[in-house]
Amino acid sequence: MKIKSTTKLLDKADISRMIHRLTNEIMEKNDDPEDLVLIGILSRGEPLAQRIKKNIGELTQKNVE
């Protein structure tokens, strides 16, 4: 079966906004980011976890594992 057309669900800016919102939700539920561990499945979850880790570090100036 051939796919006749493709539909773009999210662009780069949309994805960035979603990751920032997810980061904020994580921080709302966790007081101390140094007690937080992010785990991502290597195929696609690991890059997402790395982006969230970077955002948390920028927001809090603290290290996240």
TrEMBL record:
Q: Which SUPFAM superfamilies match?
A: PRTase-like (SSF53271)
What Gene3D superfamilies does this protein map onto? 3.40.50.2020
Leader sequence range is none
Transmembrane spans:
none
Record protein name field: Phosphoribosyltransferase domain-containing protein
What organism does the UniProt record list as the source?
A: marine metagenome
